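Quick one: structure tokens for this chain, please?
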Amino acid sequence: MAEESGQEKSEQPSAKRLLDAREKGQVPRSIEFTTVIVLIASAVGMLFLGERMLRSVAEVMRVSLSVTRKEIFDPAAMALHFLHSIEIIALDLGTFLGITALAALIAPASIGGWNFSTQAMSVKPEKLDPLKGLKRIFGPKALIELVKAFAKFLLVGIISTLILWNLRDQLLTFGMQEVNVAMSSLGTLVIWVFLAISSSLLLIALIDVPFQHWNHIRQLKMTKQEVKDESKETDGNPELKGRIRRMQVELSQQRMMQDVPQADVIITNPTHYAIALKYEQSGTGAPVVVAKGVDLIAQQIRLVGDANEVPVISAPPLTRAIYFSTELGEEIPAGLYIAIAQILAFVFQLRRYTNHGGNKPQLDTEGLPIPDELQRD
């Protein structure tokens, strides 16, 4: 419609347009990022489980080759052998497959690209149009994919050449080693090389992720007329407004969780409330609330903090005081400066103790000063 009217799509997509696109399965996706994360997870899994998996496979082969002639013609005995073989390899293989499957789920979800939509699975006649198919093959998107493929080929080629050149002397020594030792060393070396090459592709993935987000927004941009028409359509529709508000809350929570790893400390209630604070030491402002929540959201904040080694401190009165007095993105009130200063001083001392040793710092959370007007039960 925009192309037919000749109007330029200059307006940012509205919340409704983003919601409609999401329901149709149109979300920013980076195949490069997902592929790289799965490759790295596979390499790490092989580093830790590869030797055990090889031993398990060898044991399965030994068990399989030890079957007697009598057992071959006994279905019950063969079933037991099969179950025993599965039992030998299931744990290690299942762990490895679980790691890669988890990586394949987490990677797209981390950039907002994990979405199930029945509309995206439906058959659309326009997809069968050969003319539109040719446009897709020779269009800008195909050209970008070609550039990415060439960049990956070039990067992998350069990294592989450099690695093999630096390891040329070590590779020559394998011929003088015993077969078992040489095979083990070579296998470990191959996994490390695979990990290095996979990690190098992360460079392309980190460029592709912001590009996909930018391109997704660009494709959903609206003309001024579309904005006016949508405003007329949505005004007075409480159900649609409710859906938009829920989506806005969901997107806000996703952005909030992305800020938790950068927090300096997480203060908890300890079970019902959680507050993540960030303090820019080089700045002149007070600590800022980068995440806050109750119950399930509070639990998620703590889990993300634990995963990223953000200190978690239980200080119920202080947590409630911040939660009810400070909104997301705001600085803490002046009345809590002293209490937060003691918390941050303890966190910085704890980091110094962790890195360099010495006397372990202590913190009395019950003695933190909180003004009466900020206290909440």
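The first helix runs from residue 2 to 5.
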